[in-house]
């Protein structure tokens, strides 16, 4: 970054974008709570409820692609503000829906709130120097805590006022924030550079997507973010069905998952700056494989034929153990979300919106596909824990592919007698394996930073 902005200006931009993203994420996941009441009113099946919960995630995912490009071209201030105002109008109009089909159409508009993520990533990254972008984006990404705001607060609004008034309150708050953002936010430091450069065509902006690495990052994000959104939507319904909780208690417990899966993203950003994103991804996938395996085990009765007769016992996960595992899963997923997005501004500083939009789109599609699949699996198998069985398969596959790709890259490096790691910020001898040979300069590598990052 040629001219680094002052720290007050950086903190101002980070604070505004993080708060705005928190509100957008709260709106994006609103059907996790009001969807349960709507399901009761309309007599929906689990598959229909899953589709209703997932529909906003579809719009939010697809919209990230063009919103990221628009942010690269026009800057985040106006794109972010207009997006919030447009979404607020869609949320308000949702309250006039009277049929399931109308609700699905309205949910498509509500989903625009999910596109705020890539707008905020591109806007926030532009304010910070490379060695601090991981931490800054981790703080911004903590806006995922908006899901906890909905899981904790929306049930009380729902019980007191009904789902229509709850949606109207959400719309009003988001509209106010949209106006505030336009008035208080400043143009990012790259605005002048964009204005002075020749506008790129769509194909030129999409050029980095030819690299397989981008799509590998997208798969990682499909789990760490897509599964996070899916569980944030599905957990209240799961807790009510499995443990017989009321909607308020289910919402509070679901918040115990969404809070660490959001706030600890800040820690994940710092750790990615300090230790490298690859190592953080290993921690994330390893812990997630273990947690999802344990969570996927359904209550089972066993009969052992003993000497003096049958011995019967039951294996089942009680509520405290379930909550503990969900908390741990959310913690490691939060680290992974930050680690994935540490890569993008390092490799593609002038294509953060385009590349981040695609990665975010694929991840968001996980948030669309998985809740729908959870409902279908429930209807087909009759096993509540089938959702965690599916998640176990996904994260195990992601871990296997990541490890294979890393080992393949290392074999190439050893054969060439040079060190070229998959992540530029890990190109330091003290991490992973020592190589005391002089390596060629990597044109993608950023300047050395403190702490071996």
Explain what this protein looks like in three dimensions.
With 453 residues, the protein is mainly alpha-helical. The protein has a single domain, classed as Growth Hormone, Chain: A (Up-down Bundle). Helices cover 73% and strands 3% of the residues. The chain has 19 helices and two strands. It has a two-stranded antiparallel sheet. A hairpin with a 2-residue loop joins strand 1 and strand 2. Helix 12 packs antiparallel against helix 17 and helix 16 runs antiparallel to helix 19. The C terminus is likely disordered. It holds the Pfam family MFS_1. Belongs to the major facilitator superfamily. Nitrate/nitrite porter (TC 2.A.1.8) family. It comes from Marinobacter manganoxydans MnI7-9. Keywords: Membrane, Nitrate assimilation, Transmembrane, Transmembrane helix. One of its GO terms (molecular function) is nitrate transmembrane transporter activity.
Share in β-strands: under 5%
CATH homology-level superfamily: MFS general substrate transporter like domains
Span from first to last CA? 18 Å
Q: Determine the oligomeric state from the structure.
A: single chain
- CATH architecture classification: Up-down Bundle
The total count of helices amounts to 19
Unreliable runs: 422-453
Structural class: mainly alpha
Main sheet makeup: 2 strands, antiparallel
By DSSP, the count of extended strands is 2
């Amino acid at each position: 970054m040629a001219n680094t902005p002052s720290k007050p200006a950086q903190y101002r931009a980070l604070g505004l974008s993080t708060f705005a993203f928190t509100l957008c994420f709260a709106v994006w996941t609103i059907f996790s709570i009001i969807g349960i009441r709507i399901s009761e009113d309309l007599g929906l099946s689990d598959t229909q409820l899953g589709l209703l919960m997932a529909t906003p995630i579809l719009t939010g995912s697809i919209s990230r692609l063009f919103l990221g490009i628009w942010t690269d071209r026009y800057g985040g201030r106006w794109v972010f503000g207009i997006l919030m105002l447009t979404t607020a109008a869609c949320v308000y109009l949702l309250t006039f829906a009277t049929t399931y089909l109308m609700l699905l159409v309205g949910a498509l508009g509500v989903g625009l709130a999910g596109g705020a993520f890539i707008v905020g990533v591109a806007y926030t990254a532009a304010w910070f120097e490379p060695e601090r972008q991981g931490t800054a984006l981790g703080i911004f990404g903590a806006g995922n805590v908006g899901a906890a705001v909905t899981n904790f607060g929306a049930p009380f609004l729902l019980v007191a006022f009904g789902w229509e008034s709850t949606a109207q309150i959400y719309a009003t708050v988001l509209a106010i924030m949209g106006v505030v953002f336009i008035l208080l936010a400043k143009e990012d430091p790259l605005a002048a550079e964009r204005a002075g450069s020749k506008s790129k065509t769509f194909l030129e902006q999409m050029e980095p997507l030819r690299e397989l690495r981008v799509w590998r990052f997208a798969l990682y994000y499909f789990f760490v973010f897509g599964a996070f959104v899916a569980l944030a939507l599905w957990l209240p319904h799961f807790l009510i069905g499995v443990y017989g909780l009321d909607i308020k208690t289910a919402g509070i417990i679901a918040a115990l998952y969404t809070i660490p899966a959001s706030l600890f993203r800040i820690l994940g950003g710092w750790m990615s700056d300090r230790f490298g994103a690859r190592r953080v991804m290993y921690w994330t996938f390893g812990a997630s494989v273990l947690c999802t395996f344990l969570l996927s085990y359904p209550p089972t009765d066993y009969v052992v034929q003993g000497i003096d007769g049958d011995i019967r016992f039951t294996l089942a996960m009680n509520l405290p153990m379930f909550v503990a595992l969900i908390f741990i899963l959310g913690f490691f997923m939060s680290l992974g979300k930050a680690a994935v997005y540490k890569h993008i501004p390092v490799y593609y500083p002038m294509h953060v919106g385009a590349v981040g939009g695609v990665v975010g789109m694929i991840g968001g599609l996980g948030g669309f596909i998985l809740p729908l699949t959870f409902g279908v699996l429930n209807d087909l198998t009759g096993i509540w824990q089938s959702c965690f069985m599916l998640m176990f398969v996904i994260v195990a596959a992601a871990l296997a592919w990541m490890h294979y790709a890393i080992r393949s890259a290392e074999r190439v490096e050893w054969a060439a007698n040079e060190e070229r790691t998959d992540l530029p910020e890990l190109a330091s001898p003290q991490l992973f394996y020592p190589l005391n040979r002089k390596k060629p300069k990597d044109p993608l590598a950023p300047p050395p930073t403190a702490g071996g990052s």
